[in-house]
Amino acid sequence: MRRILQSQGAEVVHLGHNRSVREVVAAAVQEDVQGIAISAYQGGHVEYFSYLVELLAERGAEHIKVFGGGGGVIVPEEIELLHSRGVARIFSPADGQQLGLARMINSMIETCDHDLAADTPSSWDGLFAGSEDVLARAITLIEAGRLPADLKTRLEQAARPVPVLGITGTGGSGKSSLTDELVRRFRLDQEDKLRIAVLAIDPTRRRGGGALLGDRIRMNCLEGDRVFFRSLATRRAGSEVPDGLSDAILACKAAGFDLVVVETPGIGQGDAAIVPFVDHSLYVMTPEFGAASQLEKIDMLDFADAVAINKFERRGAEDARRDVARQLVRNREAFGVSWEQMPVFGTSAATFNDDGVTALYQHLRDELVRRGLEVSPGALLPVSGKVSTAASTVVPASKARYLAEIAETVRGYHRATETHVDAVRRAAHLRAARDELAAAGHDTEPISDLLAKAEKHVDGVSAELLEAWPKVVEDYSGDELVVRVRDKEIHTRLTRETLSGNKVRRVALPRYDDEGTLLRFLRKENLPGYFPYTAGVFPFKRDGEDPARMFAGEGDAFRTNRRFKYLSKGSEATRLSTAFDSVTLYGRDPDTPPDVYGKIGTSGVSIATLDDMKALYDGFELTAPTTSVSMTINGPAPTILAFFLNTVVDQRIDAFRAAEGREPTAEEEARLKAWALANVRGTVQADILKEDQGQNTCIFSTEFSLRMMADIQEWFIQQKVRNFYSVSISGYHIAEAGANPISQLAFTLANGFTYVESYLARGMSVDDFAPNLSFFFSNGMDAEYSVIGRVARRIWAVAMRERYGANDRSQKFKYHVQTSGRSLHAQEMDFNDIRTTLQALCALYDNCNSLHTNAYDEAITTPTESSVRRAMAIQLIINKEWGLSSNENPLQGSFVIDELTDLVEEAVLLEFDRLSERGGVLGAMETGYQRGRIQDESMLYEQRKHDGSLPLIGVNTFLPDSGEREHVTIELARATEDEKRSQVDRTRAFAAAHAEQAEPALRRLKEAAQTGENVFAVLMDAARVCTLGQVTEAFFEVGGQYRRNV
Where is this region: Linker (predicted)? Predict the structure, then answer.
């Protein structure tokens, strides 16, 4: 959407996800926009859009047009209602089908193409009183080159002599992040006594005239009314500064700001245009500038008052700082001064509370004081050095090529396979020839010598595999397999009889006569349960427990609890999968502002306290071997997990009280807790890497979130939590964001290996943490989805054994599949079940470990009872009625599956190479590589859907006659008014009841985060007395907020 807007000449201020109405309105007013475009997919849209229109009117900004879209989630009746309340247009799936993206966006631009510069306020007095609205309009006139002469005179007369700080530097150096951190420190240090104006410049595209004004999205320092932020495009200017910059600065000075900050776009070596406009200039660069001689070509090093070498955690940063400082000595001809005295700072703006950034801030503050900035004594403690000292790397520099090494390990394994196959085949041929000669009475000595030499080239492992095969065939050829474990015999049925009287084998064996072909099968495929686990990680599926998950989440905990009980009625196993509302997903407490209130309990369940969690799973024995709980939560996952595990422990203790009629002793309570934690089964998603790449429910800084993930895993190891997965490494949301199956698989596996390297760097043993890792994929309609499970299992097993030396349990790749949400269409919704059935069949054939089938109406609403029943029936029909489901390795032996497996595997390994070239997963994330790939692939899908080259039945082909198009009324799942009100009241009551305990608990939590303790261990106690929102705010203070990306 953003790219098409730009291509049609629009200047786009991208705000990113999870923005409150007040934030959107503040941005719209300060940026003086003509339109606002919002995607709304998680419910609460009626309240959100209505509140937005209301607040715009309050700010006198009724002229700003509001547009929205939400796929089929915003139904026609709601669209009509929102139009009546002043929303310019809500686009429906039918609009998308008829217009296509380009014409939809053209329609938006036409609607809001209004000349703001022609619409001046009746009086400019508000500007001099500090009105943001009037200042914003004055800057609009300046940008248009239409500032009235009399107003300019007034600005010059009113302008205060306040300092201007200029921040410039190379593209990708982190200028916006550093600007955010510096403004944040001004606010903290001066306790919000300063009013600061930030003018952020971005380049205009010469072709089309549009611009991405992408700095505001990076700013976390804008909350409140102390900072005015305005994005500017260069437009007709031939340099990195726009023509009216000096007048825009003048206007900010006249409006009463104490400091003006100007940030330029990325500049080249010969650019220094910012210098004449500012009183003090900061040049931002990274350590990767090439040879030291390149520094002589950088103009800004002649003019910069200070230099920041950002991303100082990178290799070579210390040397870079020395080289730059020496260049400054030469440029300034300050030969009597040591290079260490030069104002060159090493910073890491991506690291929360980085001391290098604080040192730079304190230097700039003091320099600006000399130029007229009025400050009070600072609240921040002085920093003695000039560089970051606490910059930590998630993956050590020595392991930076881990993905390329994994790719080479897998390729090396396959090369070795072919070598072993050739050796075995040669030996087998010679053996057969010798036996033929012997049978014919000929001399066999020469060929026996050749055979002896050939057998020396057959490695021991290959020989063992081939020698063991006849016994495997014998074991699998009967009707029952009997395995003795200790003193117990386990009987497994090997065949299932059809109505026709034929026996279908649960695992069908290959009938290869050639030893080389058999060895290739054993090394590349093997049977389910045998390395490399291509066909499955367990020998047989568990009898009596289908892989179906029961998915629910709507309203409050009580309503979702009732839905869980409805879904699990009559099931031998209870596999509960929980969706949370967007208020919970972003770590907030339920509250009464309309943009929050409208989303409570919509598109998921609202959970804010331990009491909510207990109500959610009331009546389910959470430690039963047949019970498993999955929670789809990421940003605030540590807190939600702490609620859940406390619920598990308390349930066990409550059961003891009920059975024994007394309180447990301290020793008994410890035993009960240990047993509960050792036996609870389930998964929490908690995958922060994929959130940054595709899903957008990050709330804390990436560094802090990754640290929390490692803390959870470390605590799991200490507490012997062996049956609960600490993370579900998810490709599903990457696919939902638009990635094709190759990118989904490659990025997901790469993220998984990044966690492996991260946890190893924390000192954990691979065999202690690998069994706690699980994965989560989407299954769509593309051919590659038929093999992503088998490819993932093989790559994981080979890498874990060959590169990491992991044991058998750690080599087993376990994953959940959810049928594609992206293939659910609002048009001809009944057809969605057909797509879902095919996707489910595909997933089960590929031996997924658990499966969720989407309901056909999820294109529009949270599933209803009837649609969920249909979705569950899809799995039950496949598992109970579909004849071929009697067999558990139906894909093995298929030529096309074999070919696809090899093709997809190599495509994934090539993607590993590309990620490795960019510094691994985290390095690629810095440049937005994964996000860019996902967007490109999403665009291709949308284009081909619209032009019909990708046939979608009922969407762009096989359409009903116009007369047959009927308005279908769908039951909408929405939280009721009583549920919302009750949830707000319950949360407030919990906070009030635990107020005395919460304060010290939160203080202890922040202390643990600041001193390097295991935060999750402390969070387990804090979660008993704190609300979700309280914990989130505490973590913001000590871990930092997530910095959004374009």
Answer: 371-532
